[in-house]
Design the sequence.
């Protein structure tokens, strides 16, 4: 299956993607995680991306689209993938359509995670991620690690993302409304969108998502 997850910052895209990708045995492709891996490795791409991310802006399409396409053409993505955080504007959605057409592929579903803004603020304020792998995600209240400050998966140190400051989160939300939300209508025109509530326990949201794609 080929699925796109859309939703505001802190909606729980990364959290859901981890479970869905495992259930569906497809790779979880997060452009945010790819950028953060580049930042921690100190690559040129990471240096470039960091500035945009910490300001709450989108990283330019020229950089992002190539990186996403490289990842989607890796061997493990041949049987399908779950995209988290890509596409993020109309230009990226059009580029993805072009990529799929070239490879004679189609998207199966776009899942739109809906969550009120006050909940987003709570989720982001308490989020802690792992130094070794930013897809290892916790929450100080809702999803605590067994030992405080230590990743259950790999023992890495947990920390707060630099772009999770209040000011940057406000900017990221504004960018989501102006740049990313329009892709929901773009995909509605293709009949691909299911909107689902991202409120409730993580497992409840996963069950809704599995139902939306006919795998419940
Ligand atoms: P990215 O990393 O994609 O961030 P985002 O879209 O802002 O989303 P988040 O990672 O903040 O949230 P999430 O929805 O994954 O929530 P999570 O599961 O962690 O992008 C970061 C930046 O990179 C962008 O601002 C941009 O600069 C750049 N970028 C990335 N992709 C790009 C692109 N395509 N083009 C251009 N630039 C790009 O959950 C949040 C918290 O809530 C966690 O603590 C979690 O434990 C908790 N939680 C989750 N579900 C629940 C639940 N059901 N109940 C209670 N708590 C929950
Ligand atoms: Zn970890």
Sequence:
């Amino acid at each position: 299956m080929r699925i796109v997850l859309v939703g505001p910052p802190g909606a729980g895209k990364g959290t859901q993607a981890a479970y869905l990708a495992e259930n569906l045995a497809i790779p979880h492709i997060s452009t945010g995680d790819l950028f953060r891996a580049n930042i921690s490795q100190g690559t040129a791409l990471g240096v470039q991306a960091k500035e945009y991310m910490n300001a709450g802006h989108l990283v330019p399409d020229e950089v992002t689209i190539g990186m996403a396409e490289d990842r989607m053409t890796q061997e493990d993505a041949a049987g399908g993938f779950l995209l988290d955080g890509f596409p993020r504007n109309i230009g990226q959605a059009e580029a993805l359509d072009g990529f799929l057409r070239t490879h004679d592929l189609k998207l199966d579903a776009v899942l739109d995670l809906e969550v009120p803004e006050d909940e987003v603020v709570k989720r982001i304020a308490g989020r802690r991620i792992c130094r070794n792998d930013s897809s290892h995600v916790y929450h100080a209240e809702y999803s605590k690690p067994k030992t405080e400050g230590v990743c259950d998966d790999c023992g890495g140190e947990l920390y707060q993302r630099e772009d999770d400051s209040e000011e940057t989160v406000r900017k990221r939300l504004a960018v989501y409304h102006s740049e990313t939300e329009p892709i929901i209508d773009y995909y509605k025109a293709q009949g691909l969108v299911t909107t689902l509530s991202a409120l409730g326990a993580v497992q409840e949201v996963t069950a809704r998502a599995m139902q939306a794609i006919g795998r419940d």
About this structure: Strands lie at 2-6, 28-30, 81-84, 109-114, 127-130, 137-139, 158-159, 193-197. The chain has a mean pLDDT of 97. The two ends are 15 Å apart (CA to CA).
